[in-house]
Each structure stands twice: as structure tokens, then as C-alpha cells.
Amino acid sequence: xxxxxxxxxxxxxxxxxxxxxxxxxxxxxxxxxxxxxxxxxxxxxxxxxxxxxxxxxxxxxxxxxxxxxxxxxxxxxxxxxxxxxxxxxxxxxxxxxxxxxxxxxxxxxxxxxxxxxxxxxxxxxxxxxxxxxxxxxxxxxxxxxxxxxxxxxxxxxxxxxxxxxxxxxxxxxxxxxxxxxxxxxxxxxxxxxxxxxxxxxxxxxxxxxxxxxxxxxxxxxxxxxxxxxxxxxxxxxxxxxxxxxxxxxxxxxxxxxxxxxxxxxxxxxxxxxxxxxxxxxxxxxxxxxxxxxxxxxxxxxxxxxxxxxxxxxxxxxxxxxxxxxxxxxxxxxxxxxxxxxxxxxxxxxxxxxxxxxxxxxxxx
Length: 364
Known about the structure:
Helix content: 40-55%
Strand order of the largest sheet: 10-11-12-13-14
Distance between the termini: 25 Å
Radius of gyration: 21 Å
Strand content: 15-25%
Number of domains: 3
Oligomer: single chain
């Protein structure tokens, strides 16, 4: 096995070989799941061990997980008790990133301050975003209910630790709830996600715990990979690697102490949904994805297509049609991959409660 192949297989096993079945535990293992698309979230969790798609909303309702704008300013599903610490880490970055757009949308400092003052009392019962905006307007916050202003005001409140996403209040319509109490890893004390009066947030401690989770799920990797995935500065990522004792295995690539490559065996195969963490987890998709095929996965913008991945290498795309799952490989599939692919097609069909027949498109 070449050095490159060993690295890709190692990363694949780090992300997918362990298969906890609880939503919160999966989110904990992989340092959060990108969550802007509900269907993609379910498929991401399935690839990592979830067997029942209804368990996602059940975990939200039980208060085990929540979602908020965190890594890279993107919505992520995380264990509920970890949301406050992560919000403390990302708050100032999120607020700075959204400041200009808030001004353009007429979300003045006065309006936002009024929203901060009244929103905590408007979350019982959890409202949809439209209901939240209606309640804010009833309480003297003159936000325009159409256009992008509601989304940006909601994100502003989330960055301040006032609210986060919870269970759906109607089908495909998430509700907003208070950020659950947790423990701020920076100080080992209860955290609410809001600034604590009289003390700075110790960013490095929260970032170090994030780095520990990241290396456990994505390693071996470099600080620049953590920075690209998390949205944190490279300098913060380097300090976080040092704080967790990351061991350099080869120039530029580190892992947690005691990490070893997986044993030899058949290829580990997964059918990943859109926007999957694995395809967003590194500074570059090379060597997992040959540049010749890169636009088949990401043709532009932020859309990441569903992918067939074997031992860390992206081999094609896939989509579901009635009664079948069409795989479009970039090149003829190696024979060693086919048994794992057949098992994955069966697993996806069971997860979706729709038996699926594999159909292979032409390579290329």
C-alpha cells in the first residue's frame, strides 16, 4: 500500500469504522454534523451508524442535540451540552462576519439590542422562525418579516447564545429553543453561550477540545485542515494541536497520541449524502478526489453532491430514483469495492424504508 493510500484508508476508518447508533454520540464522535439540509443530515448520520431516520427528531425533542451556526459559520448539529461552549468560541467571529449584511438589511444596533432584550421570553413554546419574527414585532422589534432580515436576525440571536434550533414544530420547519446549559471547557464551569461578566472566554481550551474531536474523526491531518474545516485561524488551530499533544507522523500530518493505522482488510465503502463532513473536512480534497473529477462533486457554489467513497477515495456520485440507486462512477469500479457497495445500497434502502436495486452508470 502506498503512503497516500494508507493515509486515505486511515482517515476513512477514523470517520466511519466505529458505528455508534445514538444521534448525540455520532455528533460527538465526528465533532458535529453539517445540518443546513435535513435530508443530508440523516444520510450523514446513517453513514456513521444511525439505523432509524426518525431518531433525529426524537433526539432533538429529547434535548440530546441542537443545531446552531458554528463551524465556518454553517449550521451544525451538536450534542446539546456542547453548544454553549462552541458558541462562546465562535460568537465574536459570527457577529463580525454578519455585521455588514445586518446593516444592509436595516438591522440597526438599536433594533438588535431590543431583540436581544425580549427574545429570551418568546421561546416557550418553541416558535418557527416566522412565528419568532411575529412575536418580536409584537414586542416592539420592527424587523421586516420578508426577505433576508429574519434569517440574519435569527443568526444574530443564535450567535449571542439566546437560541438554537431544536425539534421541528411542523414538518420540515425547525423550532427555536433556548441554548441548553452546558459546561464551558474553557473554565470547567456552567456555560450559557453568552459572555460571562468579568472574565474572558478562554478560547484555546474550547478550541483544544474541538481539535481533539477533529483529529479523532478526521486524522491524520494538519492544523491547516482543522482551520479550513472549523473556520478558526491557522494560529489557533496550531495551538489547539499542541494543546492536545498531537503527534506528527510525517511532515505536516499529525494524529492523536496512540493513533495507529487500521489493519488490512477489504475496502471500507460508504454512500455519503450531500454536504457530507468527510468531503468538507480538509483544506484540499486532494488526494481523496482527483482534480479531473472535482467538478462532478462540486460544480460551483457551496453544493457538495452525494458521493461514493471507498477507503477514503471518491470514486463517483450517486442518486436515488424510484426503486433504484444509480451510481455514476468516474472510472470502472475495482472488483474489491463491489461487495461493499452492494451492502451500502441495501443499507440505504433499509434506512429509507424503500428496497433499492443498484444500477451502475457508465464510467467517465
